[in-house]
Specification:
Layout lengths: L2 E4 L15 E2 L14 E10 L3 E2 L5 E8 L10 E7 L1 H9 L5 E5 L2 E4 L3 H4 L4 E5 L6 E5 L8 H9 L18 E11 L3 E2 L5 E8 L5 E8 L14 E12 L2 E15 L20 H17 L17 E15 L2 E7 L18 E2 L2 H6 L5 E6 L1 H7 L6 E13 L6 E7 L8 E5 L4 H12 L8 H9 L9 H10 L3 E3 L10 H5 L5 E13 L7 E4 L6 E3 L3 H11 L14 E7 L7 E7 L12 E5 L3 H10 L2 E7 L4 E3 L7 E3 L2 E3 L14 H5 L8 H7 L6 E11 L4 E8 L8 H4 L3 H14 L12 E11 L4 E8 L1 E3 L5
Parallel strand pairs: 1-10, 2-3, 6-9, 14-16, 20-22, 30-31, 36-38
Antiparallel strand pairs: 3-5, 3-7, 4-5, 5-6, 7-10, 8-9, 11-13, 11-15, 12-13, 13-14, 15-16, 17-18, 17-19, 17-21, 18-20, 21-22, 21-23, 24-39, 25-35, 25-37, 26-27, 26-35, 28-29, 29-30, 31-32, 33-34, 35-36, 37-38
The structure holds one DNA strand of 12 nucleotides.
Amino acid sequence: MPVHLLKIPDDQSETPVPRHLQKEDLKHLQEGHDHTNKYIQGIVILSYPLTKLGDGTDFFKIVLQDLDDVCSRISSINVLIHGKMAQDCAKVIRHGDTFVVAGFKVLKSPTAREDGRHGCHLEVSEEAGSTIYYVRGYPTFFSPKILLALCFSIAPKYVYTPLNRLKDGTIVNLYGIVKFFKPPYVSKGTDYCSVVTLVDPSNVKLTCTLFSGNQDSLPRIYKIGDIVRFHRIKIREYNGQMQGITSGGFASLTFDGTVGAPVVPRTSSRVYTFTDEEHKTIEELRVWAASNVSISGPAAKLSSVQPMLFFDLTCQLVGKAKVDGSSFLLKVWDGTKCPYPSWRVPVEAKDLEGEKVVLHQLRNLTVDILVYDNHVQLAKSLKIGSFLRIYSIHAKQASADTEDVSHIEFHLHGGTCYGRGIGVLPENNPDVKELKAFLESVDLADSQNMESMFLVEFNGTFSDFTDLESHLQRCQQLPVTVLTDHQDLSNTELKTIINSTAPQQYRVRAKLRTYKPQKLHQSVKLHCSKCNSLQEVPDGDDFDLILQGSAVTAPNPELHSTSWYDSVMWTTQDQKQRKIAIHFVKHDEMLQQPEDTLLMIEGGTLKEVWKLTKRFKCVIPVKSTEDDLELLDLSAPFLLQGNVKYYGCKQCSAPKPVKNLSSIAAEQQPSWEPTVIAQVLGIELLQYVFIMKFTLVDGTGALNAYLFDYEKFFQIPASEILTNNFLQEKMQMTMNTLCPPGRKLGDLPWLECFIKSYNVRDAMKHQVCYQIFDTTVAEDVV
DNA sequence: GTTTAGGGTTCG
């Protein structure tokens, strides 16, 4: 078999390949040169799933990294393996293996511009007379270089083409600001279609026609001014202009185009690259767009519709009904009242989908929108309760023959001119959040009579009318927080508590009138349990400065590769010529798999440190002294694990030599727990904690109670909230349930809490404070 | 099998 497994040689520097073969340097590899009796060697840093090509032959792609130059992208090369050899390799080759190939063809790499790798790729197959040797690298053997190669070479570097540099027949990556778009609609072929016109700072426009059988893989554009990043879009000339069209492997990210909004990509891709650099690009495009692209104005509300005009409406779907073959009815509301009498499209009661009670309750606030032709199919699939943006609705003034009063009709005509269509907005869309808050604040009694209110009270259950009514109902019935202990205690009125002496403990039933801080990220602090001090969480800039400061001292080579760690050092290629050293801590005299490895880094930037935390279990930034490695200033995290930065208390810590880590490394299965690491390093670990002030009321009085919570109350670890958008949204939603914005006191939900009172005395005054304890947010609220 | 749409408001 031409795929050979080689044994690990004792001397690990040479791979035992047949004598007649000579190693070829990647630098000397060129198309058309004679590479007979030469071999290419590298570490497998990436492999793709085995696939079949159009002609039915098997195909397997891997990426090799040259270990002599691990930190250069150009020293990695794509290897395309065909036929039986592809199958054989796919079975045995793993990341970290050393891979040797002889008898290959060298061709120009069509993806070099995109992935930044070698300008050529290798074609390998039995037919071409290729031979493959490999040395098992994973998981039994790692060298520091392999660890580094695996870490620094993973993400391909994409090149983005400005819109004025597009050429016919190319496949490119690009950024653009949406100047015009048609939300995905059902085409006359087999796919969904979306047409998007982009503009960029080169001031050139590009209209892209995007097709996909899967609506989700088209860009999620909600408004003009959104920013998109397209990968692998094909450029063609059409009618004398460049045009973009989906090609195989097309992928997109969409961002809110508002300056200052969170940079969170909308995408259906499971994995995608998104680095600090790209983050910066989005920010820059936003700034450019702010003064160069006219963003759509504030969306129209029903209260401001003008007859005879076209408008975009952000609304919630309350009901829908089939009308006839070419039209379909949507009943929607946006919380405001249309100032004109609007038409009611007659439909059979049995055809009307939606909660009867809600339809009745909102009957004076909903409008009927009749959608036609190509929009019908999409309209049918919409879920009651979902949030929509309907683009280019026609407000048509009409008067019925039988009456003098003119009324207003809402049509979504057939076709897709001017972006006419329907888009479903997700719950986390900022416009939806705003609309939801508004809808919840609408006082239905103002536009309803008492009869309908009774109906709501009477009909307890709503099945699929999301969030709005059912949520409101739920909130008025069950408490939104529950007790985790002492259930036998009975409630005490707040007035009684205020008039009692401290310290005592109480069970209370109260409403949350307000809380501080309103910006939830401000509620996260660092707490030292030894000296009881609280401090702000330092921001990334502070850390960056400390790293820059420590990089001034070059790594001391005398401290490299000791009994308990292996080291690699290299100099960056840029002008700064920075020296970086990484020390991989060994276990049982061996290096571990990246996900189990603790490493120490000297001279790295914020971005490099961050990148290392993605691949390795623990990262500890250090600096060299004359005779030892030591931790940086304690204003910087002493340890990074996953997304969490761990800090030590400056007052209570007494840093010990980093060599103490070797005692953990010597354990049978090193756990690398932050508490254990902190202990051996003499660090008093600061804990992340939520600190909030809740103003509770119960009709007898009001008091401020502090919430001091590591994780229990919100069931969200305070340590993870600052780096996790999902958890932030979850916490915001929880607070919105506990204390819904814009709601009257009577409509607020009940909280069940334990609070304890305690005395705070200083020379000047005496004060009684209250703290919430043994309380958690109810399960169905989280 | 490689289309569909290729921006520029309306039948109802």
